[in-house]
Amino acid sequence: MPRRVLQGTVVSDKGDKTVVVNVQRRVMHPLYKKFITRSKRFSAHDPENRFKQGDTVRIIECAPVSKNKRFAVVYDDVAAGA
Length: 82
Prior knowledge:
The chain is mainly beta. The protein contains 1 helix and 5 strands, in the order E-E-E-E-E-H.
């Protein structure tokens, strides 16, 4: 089964080796047929503490790292903004 890859914005980098990423998606309202924005925050593993608040990153599903961390930050040139 393929791993989910999501893209979002870092909203918190206060934890050691952890970033909180806000992922937004657009869904159609079932009754009114209007597109609305839904967002969810994911805790992601960032072992090098490379990313700071406001950075756009890609996260990938992985084995559980801790109680709440089920994603890891993908280190590539696109995500790092280089």
